[in-house]
Write a structure and sequence with these properties.
two-stranded antiparallel ribbon; 30% strand; Rossmann fold; 6 helices
Length: 204
């Protein structure tokens, strides 16, 4: 998977490739589709949600320019696959999932594997991380399609922070990178994609 689906398509960041080699995708895929765990396609994880295509996960992480000192917000925990990949690179990962059963299953799975730098919340990811502390993030990755850029998430980006998200309509989006500079945002597009809709106040 790493050689043929990710590295062969231009992803060269060694930290990223190492994370994909280490994190076993089959641990995050339900039994009915385990045989397809390493295929280059999204797979159902139940509750109307999916685990994204490996290359798309790699592309989004690559566009976020992650460093080992980064604090990352992961919107849409799902089964926890991308969360684990982020935790292999970043210092801390905060992850939000609106569906309680998925969040709890992912938390149990990731804790069993041994991750200690991941923090979980259940709720509306479009509103950002709820905390008494004013946490700011170096990178935010949204794993669902948004009709607009969630303003609450922009507020939680650090200066020079990056947000990666599918932006557009229900069945057709552009993969977009937002960079925050002097309280303004720069927007770049990186091709078409299709994700499940982002549900929430600033979503669908």
């Amino acid at each position: 998977m790493v050689e043929n689906q990710i590295k062969a398509r231009g992803i060269e960041d060694e930290k990223l490739l190492s994370a994909f080699s280490k994190v076993k995708r089959h641990l995050f895929v339900p039994n009915p589709t385990k045989s397809l765990s390493y295929s280059d396609r999204p797979l159902s994880i139940g509750e109307g949600q999916t685990i994204s295509q490996p290359y798309i996960v790699a592309l989004m992480m690559n566009l976020s320019n992650l460093k080992s000192s980064d604090i990352v917000l992961d919107i849409g925990t799902g089964s926890g696959y991308q969360t684990a990949l982020l935790a292999e690179i970043a210092e801390k990962v905060y992850t939000i999932e609106r569906i309680k059963t998925l969040s709890k299953d992912a938390e149990n799975r990731l804790q069993k594997i041994g991750y200690k730098n991941i923090y979980f919340q259940i709720g509306d990811g479009t509103l950002g991380w709820k905390s008494e502390k004013n946490i700011k993030f170096d990178a935010i990755i949204i794993s669902a399609a948004a009709p607009q850029i969630p303003e609450n998430l922009v507020k939680q980006l650090k200066e020079n922070g990056r947000m990666i998200l599918p932006l557009g309509r229900h069945f057709s989006q552009d993969l977009v990178r937002i960079t925050k500079k002097k309280n303004k945002i720069q927007k770049e597009k990186f091709g078409g994609c299709m994700f499940v809709p982002l549900i929430g106040k600033d979503g669908w």
